[in-house]
Specification:
This protein has 144 residues and is of the alpha+beta class. It has 4 helices and 3 strands; from the N terminus they run H-E-E-E-H-H-H.
Length: 144
């Protein structure tokens, strides 16, 4: 028997998103939307002087999978570099497509039951795509 797609851990994460308010003065922001289901995630970031994420704010209007993914992102993003976020985004994309191992990010294995549900993959990727883009934009603006 396979694990249910919407398990208790997914639902717990979906209802406990940290940093769930937008930042008043972000260094950069990015919004990503899934054309399949309409889920939308906006990520604001502010970088520290060493280039790592110092503050994050999210606006999440997504299904339970998108909310759970945003929760995992927000729980572990502070202190990460734009490069780490891009690498995690890329690894997550490969893993969901069954083209690589699970990303080195705490908790993402909870999405293993979704591997066979390709229509759900965009929602799972949204927060990581938005965070990687926002962090890269923030770094670019810091060096402009």
């Amino acid at each position: 028997m396979t694990e249910p797609l919407y398990n208790a851990e997914i639902l717990r994460l979906a209802t406990s998103i940290p940093h769930h308010e937008r930042l008043a003065a972000p260094h950069a922001s990015s919004e990503k939307r899934s054309p399949i289901c309409g889920s939308r995630v906006t990520v604001d970031v502010a970088l520290a002087s060493d280039g790592t994420v110092e503050e994050v704010g999210l606006l999440v209007r997504a299904c339970a999978l998108g909310q759970a993914s945003a929760s995992l992102l927000a729980s572990h993003i502070v202190g990460r570099t734009p490069e780490e976020l891009a690498a995690t985004r890329d690894a997550l994309t490969r893993w969901l497509a069954r083209e690589g191992d699970a990303p080195d990010w705490p908790g993402l294995a909870v999405f293993a039951p979704a591997l066979d549900f390709t229509a759900r993959h965009p929602s799972i990727r949204l927060a990581f795509e938005a965070a990687a883009e926002a962090a890269a934009d923030a770094r670019q603006h810091a060096h402009a």
